[in-house]
Amino acid sequence: MQEALKEAEKASGEDEVPVGAVIVHQDKIIARGHNQIERLKDPTAHAEIIAITGAASYLGTKWLNQASLYVTIEPCSMCAGALVLARIKNLYFGSSDPKTGACGSVVNIANHKKLNHRIKVTKGILAAECSSLLKDFFKQKRKKSKGPGEVAEWSKATHC
């Protein structure tokens, strides 16, 4: 999770919502990702999606059934769906996301009984550090916010 936090810090340094992810296969990090939504102008450029793409490319397969994802916050529905489709074996995340979390908080795509794959989910890994990074980021954004009553575009977005 320390490596996922480093990725999240990269995102923060790029003025992206600080979410970071790494994928491990056979005790080796094979892919990394951090949010790049703003830079790429791509709503699908979440840390998890970037890491999944990198891992699939590295392994030369669409199945990541022997791999584990470490991510700083609970994946959203898009990312959880991609993890199921990739058949990731294990998911470890830091902070739960009560607004958009799709691995138990709002919905549970990762372990939905009607889907063809279930992911072993472990939550709360370095939760305080992961949560703090997000809270600090948004606190700074609020300080830079325009005038009273104005809602900045980033404040409408979720973590991803």
Can you walk through the features of this model?
- Helix 1 runs parallel beside helix 5 (127-144) and helix 3 (47-59) packs parallel to helix 4.
- It is built from 5 helices and 5 strands.
- The protein has a 5-stranded mixed beta sheet with strand order 2-1-3-4-5.
- Residues 154-158 have low confidence and may be disordered.
- The chain has helices at 2-13, 37-40, 47-59, 77-86, 127-144, and strands at residues 20-25, 28-34, 67-73, 90-95, 120-123.
- A hairpin with a 2-residue loop joins strand 1 and strand 2.
- It is α/β, with parallel strands linked by helices.
Question: How many helix segments?
Answer: 5
Order of helices and strands: HEEHHEHEEH
Share in helix: 25-40%
Binned strand content? 15-25%
Main structural class: alpha/beta
Straight-line distance between termini: 17 Å
Query: What is the mean predicted local confidence, pLDDT?
Result: 92
Using only C-alpha atoms, the radius of gyration works out to: 15 Å
Oligomerization category of the chains in this entry: single chain
Q: Largest beta sheet: what is the strand line-up? A: 2-1-3-4-5
Q: What shape does the CA trace take?
A: globular
Low-confidence parts: 154-158
Please provide the count of β strands. 5
Sheet of most strands? 5 strands, mixed
